[in-house]
From TrEMBL:
<protein>
    <submittedName>
        <fullName>Uncharacterized protein</fullName>
    </submittedName>
</protein>
């Protein structure tokens, strides 16, 4: 099969350094990590990740907290003027259902946009 790009392979957990490395692995094997492709279940996994970081003294992962950077970035993209008391996972699932898209696919699409904009912002920051 020449000419086909090789798909990325999942890495062992001990090789994952950040929550984003973990999410890249979840994207490759969603059914291994997320029951029923539910964004709500993914949010619970990320909460557990955050708790584990706190317990083990690793740098805190705040991006996916209820009112964290991802949710604050998300509201305008979902045409919401204010944050949702339901949280980002519920609102992504609602938006995906309304658009007829799989919720986990929508989450990863939004995550890619969030990361790209964040990377651009970090590159543009004065040094």
């Amino acid at each position: 099969m020449t000419g086909m790009a090789e798909l990325p392979k999942p890495r062992p957990l001990h090789e994952l350094d950040t929550v984003y490395d973990f999410l890249d692995d979840v994207r490759l094997r969603p059914s291994m990590y997320v029951r029923g492709s539910s964004v709500l279940h993914l949010q619970s996994v990320l909460y557990g990740y955050s708790v584990a970081c706190e317990i083990h003294g690793a740098p805190a992962m705040r991006d996916f907290e209820h009112f964290g950077p991802f949710s604050e970035w998300l509201w305008p993209r979902l045409d919401m003027q204010h944050s949702s008391p339901q949280g980002w996972a519920v609102e992504i699932e609602r938006a995906a259902e309304a658009a007829g898209n799989p919720p986990l696919d929508m989450f990863f699409h939004l995550l890619d946009e969030f990361r790209a904009e964040r990377d651009d912002t970090l590159q543009d920051a004065p040094r």
